[in-house]
Amino acid sequence: MRESAKGQRELKRVINTSEVLGMVETPGGTCEVCASADAGYDDAAGRLVVKLEAFLRTTNLRAKEKRLNADWLPKTETVTESVAPEEAGEVARDVFHRWTRKVRAAAPLVHSPA
């Protein structure tokens, strides 16, 4: 474990992943519904920390990609689990899969990406 310049512990990277869960129509056009997880492991504390986010991403190839929010999307969460280092990857993936189900359930009519 190292400490950052701000005095915070730096976590060992476990996973950093995102997934497009489908498409929704918005007043601004079609957007992808996305879920992401950034997980790190704190060796000293023996715990996994997973930051979970949900967002909409524009799909217009002629415009700069933007991340958007919607009232129906779940708010960003941080999940902390006490696990052994060798279990961190599997637990992080499980947390992410539960998150994707929560985001899908919150979404209005979602259709599959092309």
Describe the structure.
- The chain has 114 residues and is α+β, with helices and mostly antiparallel strands.
- It has one domain.
- The chain has 1 helix and 7 strands.
- The chain has one helix at 88-106; strands at residues 2-3, 9-10, 12-26, 29-42, 47-58, 67-68, 77-82.
- The strands form 2 sheets. Strands 3, 4, 5, 6 and 7 form a 5-stranded antiparallel β-sheet that branches. The protein has a two-stranded antiparallel ribbon with strand order 1-2.
- Strand 3 (12-26) and strand 4 form a beta hairpin.
- It starts with a strand and ends in an 8-residue tail after the last helix.
List the helices and strands and how they pair.
Elements: E1 2-3, E2 9-10, E3 12-26, E4 29-42, E5 47-58, E6 67-68, E7 77-82, H1 88-106
- Name the helix and strand elements from N-terminus to C-terminus, one letter apiece: EEEEEEEH
**What best-fitting shape do the alpha-carbon axes yield?**
elongated
Number of helices: 1
The chain-level mean pLDDT equals: 86
* DSSP strand tally: 7
Write down the domain tally.
1
Q: How can the largest sheet be summarized?
A: 5 strands, antiparallel
Strand content: over 45%
By secondary-structure content and strand pairing, the structural class works out as alpha+beta
Which regions are unreliable across 5 or more consecutive residues at pLDDT < 50?
Answer: 1-7
Cα radius of gyration in angstroms: 16 Å
Helical residue percent?
Answer: 10-25%
